[in-house]
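In response to reviewer comment 3 from the previous cycle, which asked for concrete evidence that the modeling workflow produces usable outputs, we include below a single protein chain processed end to end. The sequence was submitted unchanged, and the resulting structure tokens are shown without manual editing.
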Amino acid sequence: MRLSAIGRTAVTATLVIAAAACGGRESGGGTPSTAAAGECQGQQTTGITDTSIKLGGIYPLSGPASAYGDIPKGIKAYFDYVNAEQNGIGGRKVEFVVRDDGYQPPKAVEEARRLVEQEQVFALFQTLGTPSTTATWDYATQRKVPQIFVATGASKWGLDTAHPWTIGWQPNYVSEARVYAQYLKTEKPAAKVAVLYQNDDFGKDLLGGFKNAIAGTEITIAAEQSYEVSDPSVDPQMRNLAGSKAEVFLNITTPKFGSQALAADAKNTTWNPLHIVNNVSSSITVLKPVGFENVQGVVSSAYYKDPLDPTWADDAEMKLYKQKMQQYAPGVDADVPYHTFGWAVASSFHKAMAAAKCPTREGLRDSVRDLKGVQVDMLLPGVVLDTAQGDGFPIESMQLMEFKGERWELFGEVIDTRKEFGPLTG
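The workflow returned the following structure tokens.
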């Protein structure tokens, strides 16, 4: 999913949008409805016309989190496919403008302003990272620009009520932490856990969720170490954590540091904990440099299909994805899960825009907060988009997986954290 670190990349695609002036709405179940006459009048139409729609994405195409720069390739391939082979939906083509913030919040603000004020985008689609999104959501709110399906699982995107224009997509970090805690309650009910976490809202959110989830159990935190994204490595932290002799190691990192922590764990012959790596660092691109022989038995969680998993070899969406990646992103490795992530989130945007009552910024804002069991074919069976007023978390279901051989293997059942743990509250 890595794009070259250039100022911007424009791609075109066609996307479903309500037909005609404020045309037929397609709900999650596919039932069309129409907006009342005049309902769309006075709403914002910057960045959208009868024939076009312009989106802006902000990714770390360079810097310590540049592995995530792969995501736009999957998005681009999806949009190109829809444009070329479905002859557009609603007659509107999407121009997707990608900007590089280097995983630096001040740069993210600069790029958000450029996208909104100079590029005149309809919406910010996929600002990546908790620090960057935190730095930009006040601006999006002030300008009343949808900031849709941000690529970060911070729980505040769904809990906060002061920023109605911003919403996440992937499972939030607190829900993910709950899944790991539930797993340990069954497998290692008295475990001592060592934790490495990124010292920002991302790392603290997942760690805090884990601590809350183990409260009242015999599971304890034996040691915790933080790191900064500017650190050259996490080797010192890993040495300190190894000294705890904890039975479990919870690895809350972004890809660069995830690889370093996995490698450090593999090299330490005197410490052999159960290694749980958070989802955002579970990509094959993180594990492969460490050596597959060194990451056997590592546990993580998933919510979308893994292109390397033979379970999906005959899956219609996976076959379509691989064919269209080859066709519209030649030379790009379709087996890299970040590409699959991009395809899945682009498909989710497609569904949300199709369900908008009005082809306006307000229409999109309201649509993403009224998704009722919307199925996205690249998500795991049983995982759907589901939101409502007061519930701004599109995806809250996950399944555990273990690394075996050269790929992840799913185990257990899909866990709907809403049902298992109750709704997330502030």
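Residues 174-302+400-421 form a domain with the Rossmann fold fold (CATH 3.40.50.2300). We consider this sufficient to address the reviewer's concern, and the full set will be provided in the supplementary archive.
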